[in-house]
Amino acid sequence: MSSQLKAQIVLDRNYKIARVDERIYGSFIEHLGRAVYGGIYDPHHEQADEQGFRKDVIHLVKELQVPIIRYPGGNFVSGYNWEDGVGPMRDRPRRLELAWRTIETNEIGTNEFADWANKVNADVMMAVNLGTRGIDAARNLLEYTNHPGGTYWSDLRKSHGYEKPHKFKTWCLGNEMDGPWQIGHKTAHEYGRIAKETAKAMKLVDPDIELVACGSSNTGMATFPEWEAITLDHTYEEVDYISLHQYYGNHENDPANYLAKNMDMDHFIKTVTSTCDYIKAKHRSKKTMHLSFDEWNVWYHSREADKKIEPWTISPPQLEDHYNFEDALLVGSMLITFLQHADRVKMACLAQLVNVIAPIMTENNGRAWKQTIFYPYMHTSIYGRGVSIKPILSSPKYDSKEFTDVPYIDCAAVFHEENEELTLFLVNKHLSETIHLNADIRSFEEYQVVEHLVLENDHLKAANTAESQNVVPHANGESTNEGGQLQIIVPKTSWNVIRLKKFMM
Ligand code: AHR
């Protein structure tokens, strides 16, 4: 007997969640492993430009249309002296880099990274060191990067060849300060105080900046969500965002449970949102705090290999996860989760961008290629701009080891009014069954399907390499709109992008 699984959604153009802030398609480059050296920068590579940046990597990053990139860390920033990375290269010191126990050559620093970000059309989300340093280093760095001139630090920038200020708008007040692994780890009260005072000083230097306070490093932290409550109690009026970080892995090789992990992310976002609103009420504040999910991804494949890395080497291959097809499905579901929370999540950074837990891999002095997770990230970044519309979903559900009532279907919809385009993003988590989805889109009746992209594979562990792209999307998805009823075939374990455009009758 055939067991045809069915699901329904109702999409109404008036059910608006919020305009999608394009910065949810941000990413992250840390001075870690081969992200910078061997990744974006490889001066001896045949594709190196006049500054030593790899043009093939620039091309791939541009395909992703990344609007903002966090820099320079990560754990790295908590031991970083930004002054080491500016001025003539020959004078820059080599340092023991304590977060990842490597040697940092400082060939690339703030100015070069700003140049590279310009080349890929991205803004920079800077982070200041609140681990080993504090208010003074942060305000000096901001004066160096953002002040026009006529002062010690801004004139120093000019003397380094950067006449115009970089005008970095978004700044993170430290990184994962709740984590005992962090250099200069703090209690929530210690962090809340230093974050508030640093924020005050930085906004005196440049009132136009936006600041992100550190939230919890993951949902498993014993201090979550008290950390957010205390931190925001100190900083509520000074900061603009609270950060969230989360990585998932399929440690137990349980795909059904693994693919459900964006439910944990959803819960994380809801809890942080509630905590923000509690502090808003407590402070009788008019301001609404927004969320910056500035580190997220799958991260587990490389954990064992990393234990074998020799300390005090230069840019070793750290955190080099080789992603498979099921990882791409979870990444797709995580992106859908951000779109479902477009009213509060205004920034998010896929961690990271090149080589280190990344959609783009390179060989030193060799090829560059797209990992499986490249595709859902690219699709949402390109087609997920506009207003997030709330789909009312009825889907069959399943229970897994950690989660109950997991809908097989994940769904988000984005309406780009000016371009008259509607895009649906769908994941089918069912390991063996196609799902027939009926989408009632009567308020988009004149819209017809122009493309149905599908990422599917019979092997959950299929991966891409420099030699072969085994996991790539195709455009043969099946969906048709008849009188406002969109019939969509959603293959087992698949990522789908259904693009509709208005056609005049
Ligand atoms: O992205 C890798 C690391 O993960 C970052 O340095 C740190 O912030 C997080 O723990």
UniProtKB/TrEMBL annotation:
Keywords: Carbohydrate metabolism, Glycosidase, Hydrolase. GO terms for biological process: L-arabinose metabolic process; polysaccharide catabolic process. Its EC number is 3.2.1.55. Pathway: Glycan metabolism. It catalyses: Hydrolysis of terminal non-reducing alpha-L-arabinofuranoside residues in alpha-L-arabinosides. The keyword Chloroplast does not apply. GO terms for molecular function: alpha-L-arabinofuranosidase activity. InterPro entries: Alpha-L-AF_C, ASD1_cat, GH, Glyco_hydro_b. Belongs to the glycosyl hydrolase 51 family. Homohexamer; trimer of dimers. This is non-reducing end alpha-L-arabinofuranosidase. It comes from Bacillus mesophilum.
